[in-house]
Write a structure and sequence with these properties.
The chain has helices spanning 3-30, 51-66, 98-106, 117-128, 158-166, 181-187, 192-195, 209-215, 237-253, 284-292, 303-314, 342-350, 365-371, 376-379, 389-395, 411-444, and strands at residues 37-44, 76-82, 86-90, 142-149, 169-176, 196-199, 223-230, 261-268, 272-276, 327-333, 354-360, 380-383. By secondary structure, it is an alpha/beta fold. The longest helix has 34 residues, at 411-444.
């Protein structure tokens, strides 16, 4: 083969490899199986948002939309534009394709007046998320609001945002520039670390695109999750209320529905009590209400007996457990067990249950490690104070997506990163080969 022919072959192979990798990245971004959701963007277009900055917000919206599975029976998207007044730019029933949505977003113009954020949230709750505007009533359809703002609200947001969250709307708050963090935290859903974002300027807002692509990505695997909660007298009533709030923080992170995650709750002390079995409540609102109603047992701490109950009862078909679905047990305790836990913990793990152990105060860390699945570092948590339990809720990750596939859940962002790294490596190799060929040509000449 002649030298020019060799150079041409290298160019063809390099170009083809680049195209293949880009196609793979596009597939990862475009084919992700997002769960059916009603999403409403609430965008601030007050006078402090310059025209060029407002265009950057629209680019951000477009890129998030591009990662969604848009359709009448899939994800529906609405856009609310606000300043001193509120304008419903795109209703949830308006557009059933990405192309139509993107076109509608491109035509939105800034309102350029004040900043009535509370009014905008009220409008979204009463109008944008109404059935008349295309919102779906099914408890399996999540309602998500994404607020983008750059300034201090000129009206009250705390109470209206709380009402929106109580109505089942999950709120993400994105702040830009001069916005106060307190404002974002008053609007956003728990856990705040997952629902509050800040960027210094609108030029950086695109960096959040991958986060929201990942947030809307659906796991194809279901899970049966049972909380095993210590209700012994050492916990005390006021701390037991904190435990219930902690349970609900974790529930907020799960994809609860009839076909995906089911949750059961068991309380124990000297005896064991099933509060409710798997599958009784298949939406977050009903599930969290049931947790709030759980009474406090008091008395002793029979953790071994409780884990045996989990194995022999909670994860059986008669109690709602589903064949072939991953089983996850979350054990919470604040003290040393009054019975032996080793056999029960071993039996749970031998049965294939993923076991998390969470301890507070006087909990014995060796016992927690014995309960926890491998790797223990990912399944065992301890804090000295009930008031800091929220930090554990943020760290505890229940991963039910088992297949590492570019169109699945958390793999999306990882896969895109791998593609970018591969492209960079390929570019470096081509540069090196080009230099070597140039050197060879010079020698031949």
């Amino acid at each position: 083969m002649t030298l020019p022919g060799f150079v041409m072959l290298l160019c063809i192979l390099g170009a083809q490899a680049t195209v293949d990798l880009r196609n793979a990245a596009a597939m990862a971004a475009g084919l992700c199986n997002t769960k059916p959701t009603d999403v409403v963007f609430i965008i601030d277009s007050s006078r402090s948002v310059r025209p060029a900055e407002f265009e950057q917000v629209k680019v951000f919206l477009t890129k998030v939309i591009d990662g969604l599975n848009v359709g009448a029976d899939a994800t529906r998207v609405g856009v609310v534009n606000y300043a001193s007044r509120v304008k419903n730019e795109v209703s949830l029933k308006s557009h059933k394709t990405k192309a139509a949505l993107v076109k509608a977003v491109s035509k939105i113009e800034p309102l350029s007046s004040g900043t009535m954020t509370g009014l905008a949230i009220q409008f979204a709750m009463n109008v944008a998320f109404s059935e008349a505007e295309g919102a779906r009533k099914s408890p399996d359809i999540s309602k998500v609001a994404i607020i983008v703002t750059d300034g201090r609200p000129q009206d009250n947001i705390r109470e209206i945002a709380a009402k929106a969250r109580e109505a089942g709307i999950e709120i993400f708050a994105i702040g830009v520039g001069r916005v106060e963090l307190t404002t974002l935290r008053q609007m956003a859903s728990e856990p705040l670390d997952d629902h509050v974002d800040y960027v210094e300027s609108y030029s950086l807002i695109e960096k959040l695109t991958k986060k929201f692509q990942e947030a809307f990505c659906a796991c194809s695997n279901a899970a049966d999750v049972v909380f095993l909660i210590d209700g012994s007298k050492s916990v005390r009533p006021e701390n037991f209320e904190l435990v219930k709030k902690w349970i609900n923080l974790i529930i907020d992170k799960l994809d609860v529905s009839e076909t995906n995650t089911h949750v059961g709750l068991v309380q124990y002390s000297s005896s064991v009590k099933q509060e409710f079995p798997l599958g009784r409540y298949n939406n977050k609102k009903a599930l969290k209400e049931a947790v709030k109603k759980m009474g406090y047992m008091e008395r002793g701490t029979m953790t071994g007996q409780a884990i045996n109950f989990l194995v022999d009862n909670s994860f059986t078909p008669s109690q709602g457990a589903r064949p072939g679905v991953p089983k996850v047990g979350i054990v919470f305790t604040d003290g040393r067990s009054q019975d032996y836990i080793g056999d029960a913990a071993k039996k749970a793990k031998e049965n294939g249950f993923e076991m998390f152990a969470v301890g507070v105060g006087n909990a014995v860390e060796d016992e927690l490690r014995e309960i926890a699945s491998i790797p223990v570092a990912d399944h065992y948590f301890y804090t000295a104070d009930f008031k800091t339990m929220n930090q554990i809720a943020k760290k505890l990750q229940i991963n039910v997506c088992q297949v590492e596939d570019p169109c699945e859940c958390n793999s999306l962002v990882k896969f895109q990163k791998k593609v970018e790294e591969a492209l960079q490596a390929l570019t470096k190799k081509l540069d090196a080969v080009t230099k070597r060929i140039t050197a060879l040509e010079n020698k031949i000449v």
